[in-house]
Amino acid sequence: METLKEERWQHDRDFFVRKAEMLGCEVLVQACNGNDEVQIAQAENMITQGVDILVVVPHNGKIASTIVDNAHKHGVRVIAYDRMIRDCNLDLYVSFDNERIGEMQAEYLVKKAPRGNYILIGGSPTDNNALLYHKGQMKILQPYIDSGFIKIIADQWAADWQPMEAMKHVENALTKEKNITAIVASNDGTASGAIQALQEQKLDGKVLVSGQDAELSACQRVIEGTQSMTVYKPLQLMAEAAAIAALQIIRNEVVSSALKIVSNGKKDIPSILIDPIVVDKTNMMETVVKDGYHSEKEIYIK
Asked: What is the pLDDT of residue 302?
């Protein structure tokens, strides 16, 4: 795993391990905390220990191709989890429809505010998903930009998805233009940084802000009105699908749920893509709470 510092990834780990163990598998989990060399070394160590398959959340989608190449030399197959591993003979990709997530974020904001000044805060430029979110966002925004209805004040990337990076970018944008209509933040972490910058100018709750991952703090912000929406990704569905697919690959069975194809730059990769869900104040109870992702008591703290 790339990190376990964020609440979201702890959920992925727990869902995956629980399902794999139910299937009779043993799971080794390690996180590299954003260090590519460490991630490569961890994968090499697992291969040496004799694992049957690697499931990788890459820190850098291009550099992680080294992991796939080395694994294949030792007869170990590799699943890219959530983020694509590029330019290699990857065995399977399990994720959400990430371009669609970007579209959902922009669609929500444009529906609420089809005119005005927008700020775009992307994620880590080394994360292929961040590029896909941005592509989806621009697919929706471009016609409004071309017509002059929407003006992009800033379009920046937050290194390693750091909230402080997002805060800095929004602070800089606000020095040029205080009249901001919406911030397309690519995940809940960058949304939190953006909202901090808005709070400094007493603009929180007055500017639309998107997000993604349905983190507890983000769900609380949605209810209190400082964050407009988040994209809820049913992580349990993805993690369990990955665990089942891993066992099918080990047994040389057909991965029956790999119904999509996604190019990684070198080849078309069989893919399992789970549908995400837009969440705001109106459907929090029947999505995030109903699935047990967070409790009503946790979200509605006031």
From this structure: 66
pLDDT in tens, 247-265: 999 999 999 999 999 999 9
> How far is the CA of 85 from the CAs of 68, 79, 90, in angstroms?
8, 9, 7
| Sequence-separated (6 or more) residues with CB below 8 Å from residue 251 | none
Please state the separation of Cα 146 from the chain's center in Å.
28
Do strands 268-274 and 260-263 pair parallel, antiparallel, or not at all (unpaired)? antiparallel
CA distance 28 to 254: 24
Q: Report in angstroms the alpha-carbon separations of 92 from 104, 206, 212, 256, 301.
A: 25, 43, 24, 12, 40
Domains of the chain (ranges plus CATH)?
Answer: 7-90+235-275 (3.40.50.2300), 98-233 (3.40.50.2300)
Coil, helix or strand at residue 156: strand
Tens-digit pLDDT profile for residues 198-249: 999 999 999 999 999 999 999 999 999 999 999 999 999 999 999 999 999 9
How far apart, in whole angstroms, are the C-alpha atoms of residue 16 and residue 239? 5
pTM of the model: 0.84
